[in-house]
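S.,

Sequence below, as promised.
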Amino acid sequence: MKPQSLLKIRISVDISGKQRYTEEEIKLEFSNDNINVERKLLIRKNDGAVMGEILI
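The prediction came back faster than expected:
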């Protein structure tokens, strides 16, 4: 079995406090290699949207 690691992520919300993205959308972007991680932020490559923040 391959080693695994789980990350806790705070998903981005809009001004009203509603979650902008689902967990499944973020997983799909990771699997499509469409995410950059910069300073703990998950940034979508194609439009620069901040999808969430990795919590440490």
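The chain has a mean pLDDT of 93.

Coffee later?
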